[in-house]
């Protein structure tokens, strides 16, 4: 039994149908726990006041915005190398979720930035690269929608995803070069001495878990939808031929 | 390869009047900018490098539809795909022809338009040099975008949506060279980065473009 077994759409659907009923409540539970704990039962920061609490939405969304793209990159590679349809469809299914996560990160960041930095938007490297990432998501989604033949669409979007990844990384560093930052550094690394204080850290981890579970559930669900759409299309084509 | 290059250049120069359009667009954009941001000379001078770069980039983008679409319609691409010349080579030549007929004239035109934008004298050479180094990258990335969208009817808008984010690194370093040159600051590091991007793009993009073009021709 290997992971590749689930490249078979039937097996994939059977698994996701078994996993999803557990995953949805689990994601909802973690999200509710993390957000309620974070919003109502943590102290205010002594300088930022209550605005610090947006971290429970902002950080998990930003984390997923990037990792959704990585997941799509992986899916694109698997499709180009091993031609598993499920992988291409999973990448397709993840794109809008990732785009929405990017928007959430940008909007919550703006809401926090207005009282803290005194501005909704600054051309800071991190903010700018997120905006660029959003543009890449839009291009990817638009290309999927523009091409009719599903296999060609999967091929072309996969190559776009690879090329886009290279340019996204390039843009990230180019933007660093271009302007100085306002955004604070990473506050959640595993190897650093100084992290966010535990009172904030633990509910934040719970919220991140909730977001990740929600992402996995959404992608599984949407991939299932794509597989069924593909089936319906095949059936229709067969009927038209008769 | 040389035959293909001369064919593409002849087509671009003679047929349909596509050749001058990019330059005229560049000119019009530069004329419109002072209306948009006001006639103050200091403001114009400060924005001139960025405006010239943006203008060149948009003019380049405007002509990308023509890079492959006409050859796709009349079947030339199918011939090229089965020709002994590798498709990668053919796309490199097409990118080169696009640069020679679109990018290079824009580079030559840019100092003239700099006059319109009150660009101070010390800025001319750097705007010229940065565009000279940077525009080949725009053409090659554009060739990839054109190959990606060649099968799509009325794909022009989609092409812009896909290609513009890919232009960001080139634009950042290119405009930075021009801006630093204007201010008399050190320019070596952005020049090197810009040259690196251009060379890297020339080396890799023909392969990516040929890959997607084969997928489209299948």
Structure write-up:
The complex is a heterodimer of chains A (242) and B (218). Chain A has one domain (22-241). The two termini of chain A are 39 Å apart. Chain A has helices at 9-40, 55-82, 85-117, 125-146, 150-178, 198-241. In chain A, α1 runs antiparallel to α6 (198-241) and α4 packs antiparallel against α5. The longest helix of chain A is centred in the last third of the chain and has 44 residues, at 198-241. With 242 residues, chain A is an all-alpha fold. Chain A contains six helices and no strands. Chain B is mainly alpha-helical and 218 residues long. Chain B is built from nine helices and no strands. Chain A binds chain B through residues 132, 135-136, 138-139, 142-143, 146-147, 152, 155-156, 159-160, 162-164, 167, 170-171, 174-175, 177-178, and chain B through 144, 148-149, 151-152, 155, 158, 161-162, 164-166, 168-169, 172-173, 176, 190, 193, 197, 208, 211-212, 215-216, 218.
Summarize it.
Chain A has one domain (22-241).
Provide keyphrases for this structure:
A: 242 residues; mainly alpha; B: 218 residues; elongated
Order of helices and strands of chain B: HHHHHHHHH
Strand content of chain A: under 5%
**Rounded radius of gyration of chain B (Å):** 18 Å
Question: How widely separated are the two ends of chain B?
Answer: 23 Å
For the residues shown, what is the average pLDDT of chain A? 86
Report the order of strands and helices of chain A: HHHHHH
Uncertain spans of chain B, ≥5 residues at pLDDT below 50?
A: none
Number of domains of chain B: 1
Largest sheet of chain B: none
Helix share, percent of chain B: over 70%
**Number of contiguous helices of chain B:** 9
- Could you list the spans of chain A in which at least 5 consecutive residues all have pLDDT below 50? none
Which word captures the global form of chain B? elongated
First CA to last CA of chain A: what distance?
Answer: 39 Å
Q: Largest interface, and how many residues on either side?
A: A-B, 24 and 26 residues
* Multimeric state: heterodimer
Mean pLDDT of chain B: 88
Structural class by SSE content of chain B:
mainly alpha
Number of beta strands of chain A: 0
Which term fits the overall shape of chain A? globular
Domain unit count of chain A: 1
């Amino acid at each position: 039994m290997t992971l590749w077994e689930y490249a078979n759409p039937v097996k994939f659907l059977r698994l996701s149908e078994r996993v999803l009923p557990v995953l949805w409540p689990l994601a909802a539970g973690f999200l509710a726990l993390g957000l309620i704990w974070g919003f109502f039962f943590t102290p205010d920061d002594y300088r930022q006041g209550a605005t610090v609490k947006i971290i429970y939405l902002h950080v998990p969304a930003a984390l997923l915005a990037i990792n959704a793209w990585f997941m799509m990159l992986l899916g694109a590679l698997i499709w180009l190398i091993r031609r598993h349809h499920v992988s291409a469809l999973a990448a397709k299914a993840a794109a809008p979720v990732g785009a929405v996560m990017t928007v959430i990160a940008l909007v919550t960041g703006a809401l926090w930035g207005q009282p803290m930095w005194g501005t909704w938007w600054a051309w800071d490297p991190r903010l700018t690269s997120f905006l660029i990432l959003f543009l890449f998501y839009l291009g990817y989604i638009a290309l999927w929608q523009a091409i009719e033949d599903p296999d060609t669409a999967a091929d072309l979007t996969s190559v776009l995803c690879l090329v886009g990844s290279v340019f996204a990384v390039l843009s990230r560093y180019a933007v660093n070069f271009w302007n100085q930052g306002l955004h604070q550094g990473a506050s959640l690394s595993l190897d650093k001495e100084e992290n966010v204080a535990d009172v904030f850290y633990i509910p934040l981890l719970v919220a991140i878990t909730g977001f990740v579970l929600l992402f996995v559930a959404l992608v599984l669900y949407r991939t299932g939808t794509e597989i069924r759409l593909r089936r319906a299309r095949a059936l229709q084509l067969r009927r038209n031929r008769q | 390869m040389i035959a293909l290059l001369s064919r593409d250049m002849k087509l671009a120069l003679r047929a349909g009047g596509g050749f001058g359009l990019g330059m005229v667009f560049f000119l019009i954009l530069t004329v419109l900018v002072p209306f948009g941001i006001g006639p103050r000379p200091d403001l114009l001078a400060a924005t001139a490098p960025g405006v010239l770069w943006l203008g060149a980039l948009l003019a380049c983008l405007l002509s990308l539809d023509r890079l492959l679409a006409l050859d796709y319609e009349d079947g030339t691409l199918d011939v090229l795909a089965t020709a002994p010349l590798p498709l990668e080579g053919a796309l490199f030549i097409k990118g080169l022809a696009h640069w020679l007929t679109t990018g290079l004239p824009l580079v030559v035109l840019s100092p003239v338009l700099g006059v319109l934008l009150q660009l101070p004298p010390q800025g001319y050479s750097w705007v010229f040099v940065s565009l000279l180094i940077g525009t080949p990258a725009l053409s090659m990335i554009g060739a990839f975008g054109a190959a990606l969208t060649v099968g799509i009817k009325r794909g022009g808008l989609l092409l812009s949506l896909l290609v513009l984010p890919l232009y960001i690194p080139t634009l950042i370093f290119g405009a930075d060279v021009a801006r630093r040159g204007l201010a008399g600051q050190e320019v070596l590091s952005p020049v090197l980065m810009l040259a690196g991007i251009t060379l890297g793009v020339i080396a890799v993009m023909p392969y990516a473009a040929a890959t997607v073009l084969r997928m489209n021709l299948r």
